[in-house]
TrEMBL record:
Lineage: Bacteria, Bacillati, Actinomycetota, Actinomycetes, Kitasatosporales
GO terms under biological process: cell division
UniProt keyword annotation of Lipid metabolism present: no
Location of the protein in the cell: Cell membrane
Protein name (database record): Cell division protein FtsX
Source organism of the structure: Streptomyces diacarni
Length: 303
């Protein structure tokens, strides 16, 4: 009988405040979808870092005869055969080095022509203008500083370049977008909480006669508050359900059927990452509105 009464009160409360309940559902859905998207975006950035950092190399560019007049690091002329051998020997002694590749000027010119064949500068360059280089793959990409310290400023070395630094700007942009999404999510969540508080207040005021009668017949405070708390929890659960649907649709249509076909060089997150986020979204969708309703009732429903 008590359960039936509570359910009937929940039904009455939802019908009386249908418009405000709908607003709560939409706000919760959008805020939790943004929260889930931010968590997945962070996972995507971590996946991309692990994928690309494992492939990046440190490039040690050697001086050529054209650098002597234009680069202070090469003021003593082009790299000699002895200097190249010494650099290779010292690289082989380092524990952080996994593999060493030597790229000649001819090979560098060939790669440049392939990669930038549409560039207007491609026809104006010659092989002797290209730099020889050592491409070094590290066991741990974060140990770049070891090579930077050992070879920067060395005779015959024009520059030590970490390819990882070229990717940092991209990852910083992605992290910035993630932070912006979190800020929007926080704003939407505040709006949702304010709507929940207002909905509970209106519902409690419109049913003050019923709650007064229940108080007179000896009903406990928790029993009187339960319908209001469950109304907020149900609205939050529906909103969280819509948020989960948005995340699943985003993964299926945006990533699987569009981005993966357009961008082949990125290792995108799988369904396992999405599945791990969905229970968290549902739990937050139920608990946060219920907690907001409980705190509001302690202030506005004097029982």
């Amino acid at each position: 009988m008590r359960a039936q009464f509570v359910l009937s009160e929940i039904s009455v409360g939802l019908r009386r405040n249908l418009t405000m309940t709908f607003a709560v559902i939409v706000s919760v859905a959008l805020s939790l979808a943004l929260a889930g998207g931010s968590l997945l975006a962070r996972e995507q950035v971590s996946t991309m870092k692990g994928f690309w950092y494992d492939k990046v190399q440190v490039s040690i560019y050697l001086c050529n005869k054209n650098d002597a007049s234009s680069d202070p690091n090469c003021d003593k002329g082009a790299v000699t055969s002895q200097q190249k051998q010494e650099i290779k020997t010292d690289l082989e002694k380092l524990d952080v080095v996994e593999k060493i590749y030597f790229e000649s000027a001819d090979e560098a010119y060939k790669h440049y022509k392939q990669d930038f064949k549409d560039s207007p500068l491609a026809d104006s360059l010659t092989a002797d203008q290209m730099q020889e280089s050592y491409r070094v793959k590290l066991k741990d990409p974060t140990k770049y500083q070891v090579l930077q310290t050992a070879f920067s400023g060395r005779q015959g070395v024009q520059e030590v370049q970490d390819q990882r630094s070229l990717l940092e700007n991209i990852f910083n942009l992605l992290n910035g977008m993630n932070i912006a999404a979190l800020c929007v999510m926080a704003l939407m969540l505040v709006v949702a909480l304010l709507l929940i508080v207002n909905t509970v207040r209106v519902s409690a005021f419109s049913r003050r006669r019923e709650t007064g009668i229940m108080r007179l017949v000896g009903a406990s405070s928790f029993y009187i508050q339960m319908p209001f708390i469950l109304e907020a929890a149900i609205a939050g659960l529906i909103g969280a359900g819509f948020a989960c649907v948005l995340l699943v649709f985003g993964k299926y249509f945006l990533i699987n059927n569009w981005l993966q076909e357009k961008i082949l060089l990125i290792n995108f997150i799988g369904w396992d990452a999405v599945i791990k986020v969905l229970p968290l979204i549902l739990a937050v969708g139920v608990l946060v509105p219920a907690a907001a309703a409980f705190i509001t009732l302690r202030k506005y429903l004097k029982v």
